[in-house]
Every structure is written in C-alpha cells, then in structure tokens.
Design a protein that fits this description.
mainly alpha, 73% helix
Length: 107
C-alpha cells in the first residue's frame, strides 16, 4: 500500500483535496470579510450623510423660526403651541413627529 492510499484510508479523504478545500474556504472567508467591510463603510457613509442632512434641516428650521418671529409673523409662544400640536398628531407627545405616509414630500 502506498503512502497516499494509507493516508486516504486513515484520514478518510485525499489530503491534497483536503488542503485544496481549506484554501478555497479561506478564500471565501476573505471575500466575505471584504464584502462585510465594504458594506460597513457604505452604512457609515450613509449615516454620516443623514447626519449632515439632519443638521442642515435643523439649521434651516431654526433660521425660518427666527425670521418669522423677528418679522412679527408669529410669536415664540405661537410657534411653541404649533410645535406641540403637531407633536401629538402622531399619537405621542415625545418631541418628535412620525412621518405621515400620505403627506407630500418634495424630492
């Protein structure tokens, strides 16, 4: 019995094929790791964009509120009352407004 047959009978498989399987598994693992890394970077970039957009919208809302108050279009108390009224429209007085799926939102 030659050495290869002895190893196959002992290990239950061809050691060369076994090594090839391990190499293929390592390659697939590296590819999956790279794919997950790319996906994580994409998610982080999207989160950063959303944060910038939110900060810009917050600045815009504050600027509009200040201009309206400064020009006497409404008082700070009227603005607060309107914010409170809009806040509870979604069923929760939590300082946030859940989006209305039927509300028009420009692109």
């Amino acid at each position: 019995m030659n050495l290869e047959r002895l190893l196959v009978s002992f290990l239950g498989e061809d050691p060369v094929a076994r090594g090839s399987d391990l190499a293929q598994k390592r390659r697939k693992q590296r590819q999956a790791t790279h794919r997950v890394g790319r996906e994580l970077r994409d998610v982080a970039e999207q989160a950063a964009r959303l944060e910038r957009d939110l900060e810009r919208m917050s600045l815009l809302a504050a600027a509009l509120a200040h201009v309206c108050i400064e020009h006497g279009l409404l008082s700070a108390a009227q603005l607060r009352a309107k914010m409170d009224a809009l806040d509870v429209e979604d069923g929760l007085a939590d300082g946030r407004r859940a989006p209305d799926p039927d509300e028009f939102r420009p692109a």
